[in-house]
Automatic annotation (TrEMBL):
SUPFAM superfamilies: FAD-linked reductases, C-terminal domain, FAD/NAD(P)-binding domain. It is an enzyme of class 1 (oxidoreductase). This is D-amino-acid dehydrogenase. Pfam families: DAO (PF01266). It comes from Verminephrobacter eiseniae (strain EF01-2).
Length: 438
């Protein structure tokens, strides 16, 4: 067998140990590369979006956030600071160019569909890929493959969501529609006002995304990866080849690097030659600790549920019941607005009437984190302009947990000069170099 000269020994530094960096590390090791992970915080810790997401391995999440006609709602985004999507007034001038691209990307159904096909290729077997990764890391029980539920007050509310389901169907997603009786038989904890449901059987969920990332990184280290706790600040190139990643004032000698720093990837990408419109869509979660231990022993959901009237996902997890959602555009530095998390807490009581009201304060935990979002809802996966030794792997927005499994494989294929297993054109970081049409 002919081995490429560097195939066994190429040393890659992966910047960021969220879900994307963690899976990339495992897949790079599987491809025979030497791996060093550079992470500024704890792997899978609270600083990472990968810690606090809803845990949905939703292989059907192919609809990018912007949809036709969304521009009409922009004044509301700015004027209602507590709406499900809010833009902080002070941040508006800074985010305006990103916002224009965001609206343009969903301007027509054809654009939504194009992105959906691309995302489907990234997501299609996400639950199975994650199950394999979790099994290898000894935490298979964290990945459930029992489907996900979307609940609507009525069939007409589902039909109002018609574009999304129509486009999903075109990409090959299939589901089961549930009338009220079937919906409540499947999920008895749900409020009776939900009279129509959609069960997506192919999807799954993770019962503790932070612990999952921690276990994947521990597995990568057990397989030979090195791990350095430091902030990466730049690169040293010589004649177009990468020689080192700079971190904590020192050079880490290497042959290749992966930028997987989530919402913090923009400055690093610029140093690798690409000025990219990466923005943070801040999101929140609330966990009710082990609600089965509450004195009233409430009836608890068994399946993850997305409810249309609250625009949030509630997921049964190891630690308790988590509800996650909200989109707040306010940049990386602004303080959290915990009122938004309280809204999610109140939604829980509206969705699951068996929970005790008010929920005991001591059982509640609030979190805010940064979705790394490109305006067109598609991540950047590809070589950097400065050198093919640097691979971009960030910008996974609302679907980074689910889509990380295939992203890691693609990263390893790029690092080993193999043909990527799916078409990477829709994820090409250079797509933003072209002017965009509204
Ligand atoms: C409320 C909410 C709900 C969500 N729900 C879902 C869901 O149900 N399903 C789903 O698929 N996705 C969901 N997402 C999105 C998903 O969480 C993210 O897309 C994904 O976690 C991004 O992973 P990442 O590895 O790119 O970034 P992160 O998880 O943010 O990891 C980046 C890591 O890089 C480190 N880092 C940053 N800069 C540096 C540096 N210079 N040097 C070294 N280290 C650095 C950070 O410390 C961090 O650990 C949700 C997100 C939110 C906020």
């Amino acid at each position: 067998m002919h081995l490429r000269p560097h195939a066994m020994t190429r040393h890659v530094v992966i910047i960021g140990a969220g879900i994307v960096g963690a899976v990339s590390a495992i897949e790079a090791l599987r491809a025979g590369l030497r791996v060093t992970l550079v992470e500024a915080g704890p792997a899978g810790g609270e600083q990472a979006a990968s810690y606090g997401n809803a845990g949905w391995l939703s292989s059907h999440s192919v609809i990018a956030p912007a949809e036709p006609g969304l521009w009409k709602k922009v004044p509301g985004f700015v004027l209602d600071p507590l709406g499900p999507l809010a833009i902080r007034m002070r941040y508006l001038p800074q985010v305006a160019p990103w916002l224009m691209r965001y609206l343009a990307s969903g301007w027509t159904e054809a654009r939504v569909e194009k992105t959906a096909h691309a995302l489907r290729a990234l997501l299609v077997d996400a639950p199975a890929l994650h199950h394999d990764l979790a099994s290898a890391a000894g935490v298979a029980a964290l990945i459930e493959r029992r489907g996900l539920l979307h609940a609507y007050p009525s069939r007409s509310d589902f039909e109002a969501d018609g574009l999304a389901w129509r486009v999903r169907h075109k990409t090959g997603v299939r589901w089961q529609e549930l009338q009220a009786d079937a919906l409540h038989a499947l999920e008895p904890a749900l409020h009776p006002r939900y009279q129509f449901g959609v069960w997506v059987g192919e999807a799954g969920h993770c019962r503790d995304p932070g612990a999952y990332v921690g276990a994947l990184v521990a597995h990568a280290c057990a397989q030979g990866a090195a791990s350095i706790c430091a902030q990466a600040t730049g690169f040293r190139f010589e004649s177009g080849r990468l020689r080192a990643v700079r971190a904590a004032g020192a050079d880490i000698g290497c042959d290749a690097a992966v930028i997987a720093a989530g919402a913090h990837s923009r400055a690093l990408a610029a140093l690798a030659g690409d000025l990219l419109p990466l923005e943070t869509e801040r999101g929140y979660h609330v966990i009710v600790d082990a609600p089965q231990m509450l004195p009233e022993r409430p009836q608890l959901p068994q399946l993850p549920v997305m409810v249309s009237d609250c625009k949030a996902g509630a997921t049964p997890m190891e630690r308790g019941l988590r509800i996650a959602g909200q989109v707040e555009i306010a940049g990386l530095k602004a303080a959290p607005n915990w009122r938004r998390a309280e809204i999610l807490r109140d939604h829980l009581l509206r969705i699951f009437p068996g929970l005790p009201a008010p929920l005991p304060a001591a059982s509640l935990h609030y979190w805010m984190g940064h979705r790394p979002s490109m305006p067109d809802g598609r991540p950047c996966i590809g070589y950097a302009s400065a050198s093919r030794d640097v691979v971009h792997a960030f910008g996974h927005g609302h679907i980074g947990l689910a889509s990380a499994a295939r992203t890691g494989r693609l990263v390893a294929q790029l690092l080993s000069d193999r043909t990527p297993e799916i078409d990477l054109a829709p994820f090409d970081p250079r797509r933003f170099a072209r002017p965009f049409a509204p």
